Structure formats: C-alpha cells, structure tokens
C-alpha cells in the first residue's frame, strides 16, 4: 500500500473514530435523566410545591411517580404544577380488575414486603381501557405531555403480584416454569392478562392528541437474574428478568412498548473497593446485556432503568454522604458504557424525597451524591 493510500486510510479511520465518539456523547445527552418523587400526595400541597421548586433549582427536568384511580384528579393537578416548573412526569398507571376479583390481604407480620391486591389474572382489559382513556383525555384537556407512561410495577415478584403462591418455595422461576410448573402457569396466566390490558393502554395512548408519541413502558422488573433458590432464604417466589422478558416477547410485547423497564439496587458493600466495584459492574452487565438491545436493534428494545440507588441510614445533618457518593460515582461510570452502546435510554434515580433512607434531598439541601446523580453521565 502506498504512503498516500495509508494516509487516506488513517484519515478515514480517524474521522470514523471521532464520529463514533461524538455520536456516543450526543446520545448520552439525549438519555432521559430524572428522579423518583415517592408518593407526592403523601405531602400537603404547600410541601409539594416547595419540593417542585427545589427540583427546578437543582435542574431536574423529569420526575416519576405512581397514580391510582382514586387519586386521579389530585395527581393530575400535581402533574400540572410540575409542568409549570418545567418538570415532566413519567407516570405509573395501574389497571382495573373484574368486579368479583379476589383480593390478597396485607399481612406484614407474616409476609413483610408483600402488598395487598388482586391477581393480574383478574385484570379487566375493558375496564382498564376505559380508565386509561379517561386519563389520556384529562391530560389532553389540560395540555400536558408526559415524559413516559408505565403500566404496573415489579410484577415479576410476589410482593406486587398476587398470582404467586404464599407462602412460596423460596425460589426464582425460569421460562420453563412459566409453561410447566403449577405456580409458574398461574403467574403466566396473569402475564397474559397483563399484556391484554397493556394493549388497551397502548390504544388509549395512540388515540391521545398530545401523548401519542409518549414512550410506553411495560411493568418495571425487579433485578432477579439467577434462577433457582434465592441466594438468601425467602418465604416468597419470583421470576427472573430474562424469563419474564422472553415470555412477554413471545406473546407480543415488542409490538406494544417502546422500551423495556428495569430496576436495580446494587449491594453497597465496599465503597471505593476495586473488588466490590468489579462485582457490581458484573452484576449490572448480567442484568442488562441479555435483555437490553441497542436502539434500533431487530432483536429487542433498549431499556429504561426507572429505579436505581443506594440507601444511607445516617440521619444526621448535614448528611454524611461519603460512602454513598463513592457508590453513585462508580455506578454512573458503569452506566456510561451501556449508554454508549445505546442499551440504556433513561436513568431515573430513587429517590428525591418520599423514602428517607434513599432520599438525596436531605436537611433542606441536595446531598453530594444527589449532585452526582444529576451531572452529565460519562461515556466511554
């Protein structure tokens, strides 16, 4: 090869490298960033408004929270006030059930973390669709565009899914269990009914004047990867992320949603320790890589991470954020590579306020780790 041709080749390769780096940086800027505002209606209107001002001052442009039908008008009003501050909402919606659906009671002493509710196998797509249309109509009437719409929350574990048996066998089910195991078959029945109600939500979203292009997400999934017995004994069961996504996709998920939806709460051991950091990175990759495809891939969808975070039990003021800050910085770097690969479309931290051990707004100010959360995400 002549020297001239070599120089031309190096120039082209250099241009492509710069273009790749620029594209990765540009994509990182377009990734949705936000925080969870946990149950905003637990606060009075004055406190809600003060929190919204604090969010705006910090530069937060997206918040996420869940809405129930009985709080529809109050929630819509909160979204309106958030919009007035330049803050968009990722809204979690819940479906409606058949009139005679059974209700699992709340038994915190016997099963802590297992909530009351009806099984997803009793979801009514028709009643849910009517409710979803009401929500979309109210948003249209008020001129409000959402940042995202989710349907249900963490249904791959017994805590939010009454189709699981209680007590359970202390295991994580796989794809084969959804087809052949008695408990798995019941969960699968609920999954199928869930997809029917999700289709009703898509129809309501598609007919909205203002929100027809708002990203639609399926239920968030708890970050369960390894199938079989739980690493630590539990009285309840779950289904792995991989098995849930595979089952959903085999039954039409990709025609209904714009991205998949994950939660991850990494272990907070060894802040600043390289071995612990490698463990967290591998766990994150083990969760994301098998299910989250690059944007535009024919093999699936990219992912939103709508909850991630680290708790800090210190109640002093000012808050001691040293350990959590190290962990958050580490995770932001780990997310950066997955963002560069276009596997992640959004990062929404848990939480701003509403769940004290996780909150990053404490003692009347944004904590150090909270500032790291809202900084631009580094990409590799």
Explain how this protein is built.
The chain has 380 residues and is of the alpha/beta class. The chain has ten helices and 13 strands. It has helices spanning 3-30, 45-58, 72-84, 125-141, 175-180, 182-206, 241-250, 274-288, 322-340, 368-374, and strands spanning 32-37, 62-66, 88-93, 148-151, 171-173, 216-217, 228-229, 238-239, 260-264, 303-308, 344-353, 361-362, 365-366. The strands form three sheets. It has an eight-stranded parallel sheet with strand order 6-4-3-2-1-11-10-9. Strands 7-5-8 form a three-stranded mixed sheet. Strands 12-13 form a two-stranded antiparallel ribbon. α9 (322-340) packs parallel to α10. The two termini are 33 Å apart. The relative contact order is 0.13. Residues 3-27 have low confidence and may be disordered.
Which descriptor suits the 3D outline? globular
Residue windows where pLDDT falls under 50 for at least 5 positions:
3-27
What string, H for helix and E for strand, traces the elements in order?
Answer: HEHEHEHEEHHEEEHEHEHEEEH
Helical run tally: 10
Major sheet strand order? 6-4-3-2-1-11-10-9
Radius of gyration, in angstroms, nearest whole number = 22 Å
Q: How many beta-strand elements?
A: 13
Short description:
It contains ten helices and 13 strands.
Task: From the structure above, extract its key features.
eight-stranded parallel sheet; 380 residues; 41% helix; globular; 10 helices; three-stranded mixed sheet; alpha/beta
Set out the fold topology.
Layout: H1 3-30, E1 32-37, H2 45-58, E2 62-66, H3 72-84, E3 88-93, H4 125-141, E4 148-151, E5 171-173, H5 175-180, H6 182-206, E6 216-217, E7 228-229, E8 238-239, H7 241-250, E9 260-264, H8 274-288, E10 303-308, H9 322-340, E11 344-353, E12 361-362, E13 365-366, H10 368-374
Parallel strand pairs: 1-2, 1-11, 2-3, 3-4, 4-6, 5-8, 9-10, 10-11
Antiparallel strand pairs: 5-7, 12-13
Helix pairs in contact: 4-6, 8-9, 9-10
């Amino acid at each position: 090869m002549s020297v001239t041709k070599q120089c031309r080749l190096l120039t082209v390769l250099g241009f492509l490298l710069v273009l790749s780096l620029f594209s990765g940086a540009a994509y990182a800027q377009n990734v949705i960033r936000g925080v969870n505002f946990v149950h905003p209606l637990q606060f009075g209107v004055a406190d809600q408004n003060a929190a919204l001002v604090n969010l705006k001052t910090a530069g937060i442009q997206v918040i996420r929270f869940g809405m129930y039908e009985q709080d529809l008008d109050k929630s819509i009003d909160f979204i309106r006030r958030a919009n007035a501050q330049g803050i968009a909402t990722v809204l979690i919606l819940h479906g409606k059930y058949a009139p005679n659906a059974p209700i699992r009671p709340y038994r915190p002493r016997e099963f802590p973390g297992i909530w009351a509710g009806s099984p997803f196998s009793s979801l009514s797509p028709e009643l849910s669709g009517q409710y979803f249309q009401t929500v979309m109509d109210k948003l249209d009437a008020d001129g409000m565009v959402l940042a995202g719409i989710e349907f249900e929350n963490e249904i791959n574990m017994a805590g939010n899914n009454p189709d699981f048996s209680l007590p359970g066998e202390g295991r994580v089910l796989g794809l084969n269990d959804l087809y052949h195991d008695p408990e798995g078959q019941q969960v699968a029945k609920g999954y199928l009914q869930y997809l029917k109600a999700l289709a009703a939500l898509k129809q309501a979203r598609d007919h909205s004047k203002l929100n027809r292009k708002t990203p639609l997400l399926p239920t968030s999934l708890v970050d369960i990867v390894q199938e079989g017995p739980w690493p630590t004994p539990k009285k309840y069961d779950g289904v792995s992320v991989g098995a849930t996504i595979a089952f959903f996709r085999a039954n039409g998920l990709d025609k209904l949603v714009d991205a998949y939806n994950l939660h991850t709460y990494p272990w907070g051991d060894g802040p600043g320790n390289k071995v612990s950091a490698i463990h967290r990175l591998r766990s994150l990759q083990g969760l994301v890589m098998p299910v989250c495809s690059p944007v535009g891939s024919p093999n699936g969808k990219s992912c939103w991470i709508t909850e991630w975070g680290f708790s800090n039990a210190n109640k002093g003021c000012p808050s001691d954020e040293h350990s959590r800050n190290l962990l958050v910085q580490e995770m932001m770097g780990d997310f950066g590579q997955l963002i560069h690969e276009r596997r992640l479309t959004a990062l929404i931290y848990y939480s701003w306020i509403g769940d004290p051990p996780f909150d990053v707004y404490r003692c009347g100010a944004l904590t150090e780790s909270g500032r790291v959360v809202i900084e631009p995400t580094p990409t590799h």
